[in-house]
Recover the amino acids of this structure.
């Protein structure tokens, strides 16, 4: 007896859609053993794609360009999109579609009017991966404001014997509630960061290529112009994607507008920044510091000047090895949210995170 068949078109140039259900391919033969430190029940919690859809004959077309999507969508039962802009005229060719599934709550690239007109349900599942990045960002911010590296050195050197115990003016500790957080981008990572800022009583401003008036009250944020963002922020956090038009978008001009006490945070992509210009500004103590998880060249060369700035605590530079996304099961949880929704449709069950 033949299995029920379905076809999925996946448009994802990053990889999160399928990584979590292809761990056997990514991690090798003993992939399950590598997950056990995170969760003793790994075998039950991380099914691969073939196990999820063992009762079905599944065809998956992985697309990297809009032209590829355009060529495949007419035969698709499901369309899965991650951080891409899908024109309405292309979606309208998908007359067989039973679900449009976006990975991430920022589904601005999905033509919702066209989907509604066609009667196609749309779901937007949250990215656990991006929540992990938002948490990492906040750790970097608090590390700077509370001078944690300097605290460690202060205790290691027993500096309290000379300077005293309790009040330590030399550390120049700052209160988060006195600072303004500037978000360059108001997408999937910036939004939880804005929530964290609300919890700390921190004013938050943002710039994006488009304004999100519908979420400003919810997240307590104010939309500002490009130059105002750089001039007003005490902490400037970069949360935009790398594209040809954003390559080295941040240069000496932008950094030169920052306050001399401001922290520059980048956990997005290194190629957004003119890195030599940033290094020069840090060396000259033109800004307060930098917290970087991404770099123009990765892995970061062993002789890169950023290392010396990181090792000298007076520059207030913190580096991490593109690890902000890490957390228990981020890839698996991201992927499973998508594919469980496909299963829900196949089984006639309600879908999760419906937004249409």
């Amino acid at each position: 007896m033949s299995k029920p068949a379905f076809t999925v078109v996946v448009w994802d140039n990053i990889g999160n859609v399928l990584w979590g259900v292809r761990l056997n391919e990514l991690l090798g033969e003993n992939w399950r053993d590598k997950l056990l430190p995170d969760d003793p029940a790994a075998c039950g919690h991380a099914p691969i794609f073939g196990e999820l859809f063992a009762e079905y004959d599944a065809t998956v077309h992985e697309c990297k360009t809009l032209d590829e999507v355009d060529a495949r969508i007419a035969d698709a039962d499901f369309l899965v999109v991650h951080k891409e802009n899908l024109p309405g005229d292309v979606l309208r060719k998908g007359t067989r579609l039973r679900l449009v599934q976006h990975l991430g709550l920022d589904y601005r690239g999905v033509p919702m009017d066209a989907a509604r007109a066609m009667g196609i349900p749309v779901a937007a599942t949250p990215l656990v991966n991006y929540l992990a990045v938002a948490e990492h960002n906040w750790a970097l911010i608090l590390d700077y404001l509370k001078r944690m590296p300097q605290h460690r050195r202060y205790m290691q050197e027993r500096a309290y014997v000379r300077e005293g115990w309790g009040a330590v003016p030399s550390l120049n500790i700052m209160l988060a509630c006195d600072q303004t957080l500037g978000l360059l981008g108001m997408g999937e990572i910036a939004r939880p960061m804005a929530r964290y800022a609300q919890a700390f009583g921190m004013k938050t401003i943002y710039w994006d290529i488009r304004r999100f008036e519908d979420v400003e009250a919810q997240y307590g944020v104010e939309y500002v112009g490009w130059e105002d963002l750089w001039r007003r922020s005490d902490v400037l956090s970069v949360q935009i994607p790398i594209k040809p038009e954003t390559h080295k978008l941040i240069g000496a001009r932008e950094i030169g507008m920052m306050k001399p006490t401001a922290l520059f945070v980048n956990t997005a992509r290194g190629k957004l920044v003119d890195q030599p210009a940033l290094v020069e500004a840090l060396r000259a103590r033109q800004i307060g510091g930098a917290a970087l998880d991404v770099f123009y060249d990765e892995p970061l060369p062993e002789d890169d000047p950023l290392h010396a700035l990181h090792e000298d605590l007076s520059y207030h530079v913190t580096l991490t090895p593109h690890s902000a996304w890490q957390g228990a099961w981020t890839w698996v949880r991201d992927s499973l949210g998508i594919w469980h929704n496909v299963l829900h449709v196949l089984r006639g069950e309600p879908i999760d995170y419906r937004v249409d």
About this structure: The mean pLDDT is 93. The longest helix spans residues 128-145. The radius of gyration is 23 Å.
